[in-house]
Amino acid sequence: MKKILSTIAVAAALIMSGTSCVQDLTVTPIDPNIKLPEDVLNTPEAFNALLAKCYQGLACSSSDGEGGNPDISGVDGGYGQYLRAMFHLQCLATDEAVCCWNDQTLYDIHNLCWSTSDTFVAAAYYRVFFQVGLCNEYIRKSGESNLAFDKKAQYVAEARALRLLSYYHAIDLFGNVPFFTEANSVGSEGPDQIMRADLWDWMVKEAKDLIKGNDLPSAGNTEYGRIDKGSVNMILAKLYLNAEVWKGENHYADCASICQNLMETYKLEDNYLDLFGADNHLFTKNTTYKGKEIIFAVPQDGLNIRSYGATNYIIFACTGGDMDPMGQMGISSGWGGLTLTKAFVDKFGEDDLRANFYTEYGKEIPDISDYKSGGYKSMKYRNINHDGSAAQTEGFVDTDFPVFRAADVYLMLAECAARGAADKSSGLKALNDVRERAGLKTLDAAGLTLDNVLDERARELYHELVRRQDLIRFGKFTTADYLWDYKGGVAAGRAVDSKYNLYPLTSSDVNANATLKQNAGY
């Protein structure tokens, strides 16, 4: 898959209408002499190449490499990369990190005071719907083609699953969103808006169809970096976990059932930090290592799959100051950007093996604009192999981004049990399994509380794009129930308007499409 992604140069033209988010997302080939997909999708290899573009959209900013023309015009190819855009909105808006760079509206994200025209919100919004449109086009063109080959149905199922993943981010971040599938992605006046609860219904049905069908590979029985039924089950479990927020219904028992099934296939690895090193591709279902913990990952490769986002961004931005870039992080130099808040690092005890932090500047952050003024720096992701050997050092990292992991499954089961929707002994065991790997003492039955589960999720899953979602589900994101450094724009933290539980639809999209209604409060 890495070879496919490294060589793909297919011009995946998104042919959408001119009156909505799709207007800003209309993409034409960089080279006008390159043929459009309808002209070239006439061999199995061409279908495989365009599917690779659907995957590449998660890993890179464009088909031209890290410095090439980004897929989306008007959005910087670095901060507009899919996973970096997600990190900004899912992690930087929480206690997990502040960033000292005063890039455009970046401070507004952590301060929870963004507007409808925020650059970083727009970057994430357009990336998500670019991916949706790209997958739609693949599905539509496949349906129109008379070409038959062995894996065609599988490829279409993969595109549907990748589309589901992007809608998972859309429903979480933006709520009521433009909705379009292969049936209406071309030639319409613009997609209608779908209500969050209705999108939840569609997504649950789509996930169940993919799981029930025979086209998508079963859990772990596919090439590394490709999506399968294990990943779709994970998305379905997330839909059930957040159903009270997204749908207005309690589905924790359904979530627990899926988690129990997933735990039959995916297990915890022995060493937590191995999962975030340069050779973390080894710890998946289709390898010989014990845990097979990573369910789905977005590959990065310092030679072949490069971007200024994903783990390259996380590792370089966490490194700076007086750190030893090569010895500690496996890179030649750092960017000096990301710092953990004191409220977050205070959740870790001295014995927690996951607390892989650079601590020389202390916990306090007296000046958010100065990387060296204070604050612990995360060393969770590193460009170093699990045995301590060096990865390649060409300026980009080999560390893949784990989108879904077994540890998340364990902690979802624990949360469902704490909420009374699953067997408490099973939930406690799952929680303690995660704690034991981290070097912590096990809890007794009285320790299976929602507060303990939330804190364990913070320690286990930080910088994995779930913190904001967790804080919202627990009622702590915008309220005064939990404060962290610079929440609301003040050093001590403060409550903010509940409208910030959702990001706005980007203003240019709302202005262009009369069917879209802005989220409440914006």
Q: Overview of this structure, please?
A:
The chain is mainly alpha-helical and 522 residues long. It has 20 helices and 8 strands. It has helices spanning 2-7, 21-24, 37-40, 44-59, 82-90, 106-111, 119-144, 152-173, 196-212, 229-241, 243-246, 252-262, 310-318, 325-329, 342-345, 406-418, 424-437, 450-461, 467-473, 507-512; strands at 98-99, 177-178, 193-194, 294-298, 338-339, 357-358, 377-378, 401-405. α4 packs antiparallel against α7, α9 runs antiparallel to α10 and α10 (229-241) runs antiparallel to α12 (252-262). The protein is globular, with a radius of gyration of 22 Å.
Order of helices and strands: HHHHHEHHHEEHHHHEHHEHEEEHHHHH
Q: Which percent bin holds the helix content?
A: 25-40%
Query: Quick one: how many beta strands?
Result: 8
Number of helices: 20
Biggest beta sheet summary: 2 strands, antiparallel
Q: Terminal Cα separation, in Å?
A: 42 Å
Beta fraction: under 5%
Q: Averaging pLDDT over every residue, what do you get? A: 89
Contiguous runs where pLDDT drops below 50 for at least 5 residues = 1-35
Oligomeric composition of the shown chains: single chain
- Taking all Cα atoms into account, the compactness measure Rg is 22 Å
Secondary structure: elements and pairs:
Layout: H1 2-7, H2 21-24, H3 37-40, H4 44-59, H5 82-90, E1 98-99, H6 106-111, H7 119-144, H8 152-173, E2 177-178, E3 193-194, H9 196-212, H10 229-241, H11 243-246, H12 252-262, E4 294-298, H13 310-318, H14 325-329, E5 338-339, H15 342-345, E6 357-358, E7 377-378, E8 401-405, H16 406-418, H17 424-437, H18 450-461, H19 467-473, H20 507-512
Antiparallel strand pairs: 1-5, 2-3, 4-8, 6-7
Helix pairs in contact: 4-7, 4-8, 5-7, 5-13, 7-8, 8-9, 8-10, 9-10, 10-12, 12-16, 16-17, 16-18
